[in-house]
Structure formats: C-alpha cells, structure tokens
Amino acid sequence: MSAEDQIIAKLQLHRDIKNLTIQELQNANITCQETSFTDPKGDIAIASSKDTSKVQEVIRQIQKRANS
To answer: 25 with 32: CB under 8 angstroms?
Structure first.
C-alpha cells in the first residue's frame, strides 16, 4: 500500500467514525452538527453543554463496541 493509499484510508476511517458518532448522538436526541474541516475545536459541535454527560456516554458505548 502506497503512502497516499494509507493517508486516504486514515481519512476515510476518520470520516466514518465521525459520521457514526453524529448518527449515534442524534439517535440519543443530542443536537449536534459537523464542523468545518479546518475547525481547531474539533469535528463535531454539540449544541448544549447540558448534554455533556450524555455525549460522554454515547462515546463510551461506541468505544466499547469497537473494542469488543
């Protein structure tokens, strides 16, 4: 696999995980949206800080599924 192919594979994985996370957050009734590609604050903006604990739980569940 060439260096370019490796970079593409990493970007695709990143995109897929980001999209999965947004989908899971929306399924949990957490208002969120994808940020612009160059946003230094991250890939996903959460509308309300009151959802922080729910967001953390959703992420833990995604990690648990990925590690099983």
So the answer is: yes
Q: Which residues contact 48 (CB under 8 A, 6 or more apart)?
A: 31
- Measured from the Cβ of residue 51, the count of other Cβ atoms closer than 10 Å reads 17
C-beta of residue 32 within 8 angstroms of C-beta of residue 48: no
Could you report the per-residue pLDDT of 8-40, keeping only the tens digit for each?
A: 999 999 999 999 999 999 999 999 999 998 899
Tell me the two tokens of residue 48. 């309300």
At 59, give phi and psi (nearest 5°): -65, -40
C-alpha 61/C-alpha 63 separation (Å) is 5
Q: Could you give the count of Cα atoms lying within 13 Å of 40 in the half-sphere of its Cβ?
A: 0
Identify the three-state secondary structure at position 28.
coil
